[in-house]
């Protein structure tokens, strides 16, 4: 039961959204930047999550996405079943088309109790619990700790610029920055 990249991004983005103030929309672009996820890919994932009513999408100047009412109670198994389909827990670990108690593959008897425990664990983990753990600083979603994503004044900082600044001392590299006018400039260290 290895998670697909799509499932990983869906879970990470939902936890990130759950860490934001309730009912305040977050731009998909912002979520993508914070989690280092390609924005078009995340937008497609968010469309799926929106169709399933896990997130609410708001258009316009103050638009973005936020968790649906009661979204903090969504468990990881619900998210994975939505993204991966019901086969996530039903399919053979070796990928055989016919595998069950009567027609077991070589791994079936060893894998079945492990799979049962994993499903139990996923059913117990809600977005609310996971968001609280990230906010407490106990866990993190990105390469940088959650606290580093906010400045002392409480404003958000640009993670990509921070990563470029941190790695600038290690090796010469080019960093692309976008100016206030939206034009691109390339700088060499």
Q: Can you tell me about this structure?
A:
With 189 residues, the chain is mainly α. It has a single domain (5-141), classed as Orthogonal Bundle (Arc Repressor Mutant, subunit A), CATH 1.10.10. 44% of the residues lie in helices and 10% in strands. The chain contains 8 helices and 4 strands, in the order αααββαααααββ. It has helices at 5-18, 28-35, 39-51, 76-84, 87-90, 108-124, 127-135, 159-168, and strands at 55-58, 64-67, 174-178, 184-188. The protein has a two-stranded antiparallel sheet with strand order 1-2. Strands 3-4 form a two-stranded antiparallel ribbon. A hairpin with a 5-residue loop joins β3 and β4 (184-188). The longest helix is centred in the middle third of the chain and has 17 residues, at 108-124. The protein starts with a helix and ends with a strand. 19% of the residues are buried. The model is unreliable at 144-149 and 151-189 (pLDDT under 50).
Structural class by sheet pairing and helices: mainly alpha
State which percent range the strand residues make up.
5-15%
| Large-scale geometry | elongated
N-end to C-end Cα span: 44 Å
Write the layout of secondary structure elements.
Elements: H1 5-18, H2 28-35, H3 39-51, E1 55-58, E2 64-67, H4 76-84, H5 87-90, H6 108-124, H7 127-135, H8 159-168, E3 174-178, E4 184-188
Antiparallel strand pairs: 1-2, 3-4
